[in-house]
Amino acid sequence: MPAPDLTALTSEIVACRACPRLVVWRETVAREKRAAYRDEEYWGRPVPGFGDPGARLLVVGLAPAAHGGNRTGRVFTGDRSGDFLFASLHRTGFANQAESVRLGDGLQLLDSYVAAAVRCAPPANKPTPEERDTCMPYLVREMQLLPHLRVIVTLGAFGYEATWSTLRAGALAGVELPARRPRFTHGLEVECGTVTIVGAFHPSQQNTFTGKLTPEMLDAVFSRAGQLIRVS
Fold it and tell me: How confident is the model at residue 158 (pLDDT cuts 50, 70, 90)?
C-alpha cells in the first residue's frame, strides 16, 4: 500500500489543471479515443507516479502516452514503451511480472518507483520546458517522500534534464551536484552524494524498433542500478 503522504500527493496530481494546452489535449484524446480502444473509458487526467514507498530506485520518464497512461491511468501502462520497460524491470528483479496492461493487473514494483517529468499526455509526445517546470514540484515532493532513494534512472534527455533541475531545487538532502551537468548519454553515471543518476535511452518505439535501445542495453542499466543500490 502507498504511504499516506504519497496517496495525498497522488490525489493532488490527479486534480491538476495548471497547463491549459495539456488539459485540452489529454481530454480531447480521452473523448475521441483510438479505434482499438473505443469501448474503453479513458483516464484523461494527470498520471501520478507509482511503486514501492520504500524504493531505492526511482525511474523518471518523459510523460504519459496519449493512448497509454492517459487511457489506463498508470504511467507506462498499456503501451509499447511500458511493455519494454516493465519486461526489463522484471528481468532485473524490480517488478513481479513482465507486463502491465491496466490498473489492477497484479503488477507490483519491487524496491522501485516510476514517475514522469510531465504528468499529462502532451501533443506529439513533446511537452514544453515550461510545462516541465510547472510539473517539477510534483517530482520534488515525490523524491522527498521516497526517503531511501539511492539511484535515479532517467529515461531520455528530457527526463535527465528534469531530474537535474529537481535535484538542484533541493528535492533531496545530501545531494551534491557537479558544477557542470554532464551531457546525457545511455549508461551515463553521475555520483551526486547520496544518490547516483544513471542515464538510459527512452524505451520509445523510435528507439526500440530501430535497435538504438535493445533489451540487453536496458537490462544492463537496471542491473547496474541494482549493483549501486547494494553497495550504497
Answer: very high
The candidate with the shortest Cα–Cα distance to 58, out of 232, 229, 205, is 229
Is the pLDDT at 31 greater than 90, yes or no? Answer: yes
Rounded distance between C-alpha atoms, residue 229 and residue 27, angstroms: 39
pLDDT at 1 over 60: no
- Domain span at residue 159 reads 4-231
Domain count, the chain: 1
Q: What is the dihedral angle through the alpha carbons of 61, 111, 87, 127, rounded to the nearest 10 degrees?
A: -10
Write out pLDDT tens, residues 201-217.
Answer: 999 999 999 999 999 99
pLDDT of residue 3: 73
CA atoms of 223 and 204, how far apart (whole Å)? 20
Length of the chain: 232
User: Where does the pLDDT of residue 2 fall: very low under 50, low under 70, confident under 90, or very high at 90 and above?
Assistant: low
According to DSSP, the residues that pair with 115 across neighbouring strands are: 60
Kindly report the CA angle at 143 between 20 and 194, in degrees rounded to 5? 145
Strands 112-116 and 151-155: unpaired
The span from the CA of 159 to the CA of 132, in Å, is: 9
Q: Under a CB-based contact definition with an 8 Å cutoff, are residues 176 and 200 in contact?
A: no
Helix, strand, coil percentages (3-state) for the chain, rounded to 5, are 40, 15, 45
Taking the C-alpha atoms of residue 3 and residue 202, their distance in angstroms, rounded to an integer, is: 28
What's the CATH number where 143 sits? 3.40.470.10
Within 8 A by CB and 6+ apart from 172, the residues are: 143, 144, 149, 194, 195
